[in-house]
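Input (structure):
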């Protein structure tokens, strides 16, 4: 991180020196051209980020919950999740999970719980997770 900051300061200093040596009129023309390229780069970065954010999804790769698994995304309104019964024992994994398999904006990669697993994203209302009903 420090190396990136030092590189940015050196690059900015070099750009300022270049523009000062060119004179005011030429520096104005150069800054117009540089602004065009920075605008194109910013647009490309924003478009890529928007595409990747929409394309990504919730992930529960290799998750063994021993209870309920709820994935909720982009709901217009309120969400109420009622848990099932008591938590079950979590069985040992059949296959060891590989690192780096999770994806999306949320991940439960390698998660092992004795109860419910809830992933909630993009709800415009309120989210309420209720405990199980104690009466049989």
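Output (sequence):
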């Amino acid at each position: 991180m420090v190396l990136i900051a030092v590189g940015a300061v050196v690059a900015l200093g070099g750009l300022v020196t270049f523009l000062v040596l060119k004179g005011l009129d030429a520096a104005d023309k150069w800054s117009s051209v540089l602004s065009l390229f920075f605008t194109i780069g910013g647009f490309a970065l924003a478009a890529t980020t928007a595409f990747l954010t929409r394309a990504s999804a919730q992930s529960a790769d290799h998750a063994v919950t021993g209870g309920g698994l709820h994935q909720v995304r982009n709901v217009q309104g309120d969400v109420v999740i009622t848990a099932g019964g008591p938590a079950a024992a979590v069985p040992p994994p059949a296959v060891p999970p590989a690192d780096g398999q999770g994806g999306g904006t949320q991940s439960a990669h390698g998660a092992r719980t004795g109860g419910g697993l809830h992933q909630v994203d993009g709800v415009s209302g309120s989210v309420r997770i209720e405990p199980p009903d104690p009466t049989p």
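Notes: The first strand starts at residue 69 and ends at 75. The chain is about 40% helix and 15% strand.
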